[in-house]
Amino acid sequence: SFYTGAMACARDLSFQDLETDEIDLAVISPNDPQAMAKYAAECQELGIPYLYDPSQQIVRLAGEDLREGLEGCGLLVVNDYEFELLREKTGLSAEAIQHTPARACVVTLGAEGSRIWAKGGIYDIPAVPPQRAGDPTGIGDAFRAGLIKGLALGLSWDLGARMGALAATYALEQTGPQSHRYTLADFVTRFREHFDDDQALDVLLRC
């Protein structure tokens, strides 16, 4: 059996109770399906930009709820398998899903990296080879964290997604979703072993 824990109370929480002027980006990720639909509707009503990450709950969410969550999001982030499930559940074409988010659709492709459909074009992002193969649990979350950090710093889609790729590899090299760790200096040094950032990541060293 599955113990829902605090997720059982998720539908009782509301963005209406928050100071929404202070919210730059909300992340709607796997949760109680009713809560996920509620959060998407509230973000749209309140004008809060959000990243939509339905992933494991795609199978439990109704097609209509998925379409509504997708149509109001700024960013969609899923893996390639979840993308196909999303297409089947919503009845939308692949092209429609790729171009519906206000800012970008991001699909991770495992060892093949990721692809981004953004308003400025399509970006193919390579994966960072791991130094050792550990546990893939949590690598999607790590990728999103790196991507969001890059966007928060005002970096390009290309650099932000490459930050996500490296963050994902750090997670992959360890056992468990939160066992990895690194300093910002370590991160920048390793990033530059694989990618050219033209010193853009110096901003991390000033954090």
- Treating each run of at least 4 consecutive H or I residues as one helix, how many helices? 8
Helix content: 40-55%
Could you name the CATH homologous superfamily of the largest domain?
Ribokinase
Strand content: 5-15%
The CATH topology assignment of the largest domain is UDP-N-acetylmuramoyl-L-alanine:D-glutamate ligase
CATH class category of the largest domain? Alpha Beta
What is the helix/strand order? EHEHEHHEEEHHHH
Shape: globular
Mean pLDDT: 94
Helix-strand category: alpha/beta
Distance between the termini: 44 Å
Please give the radius of gyration in angstroms. Answer: 17 Å
**Unreliable residue stretches:** none
The CATH architecture of the largest domain is: 3-Layer(aba) Sandwich
Placed side by side, the strands forming the largest sheet appear as 1-2-3-4-5-6
| Total discrete domains | 2
Tell me what the structure shows.
It holds the Pfam family PfkB. The structure is a single chain. This protein has 207 residues and is α/β, with parallel strands linked by helices. The protein has 2 domains: 1-102, Ribokinase (UDP-N-acetylmuramoyl-L-alanine:D-glutamate ligase), CATH 3.40.1190; 128-207. The chain has 8 helices and 6 strands, in the order E-H-E-H-E-H-H-E-E-E-H-H-H-H. A 6-stranded mixed β-sheet has the order 1-2-3-4-5-6, with helices on both faces. Helix 1 links the parallel strand 1 (26-28) and strand 2 (50-52). Helix 1 runs parallel beside helix 2 (63-71) and helix 5 runs antiparallel to helix 6 (157-172). It is globular and about 45 Å long. The N and C termini lie far apart (44 Å). The mean pLDDT is 94.
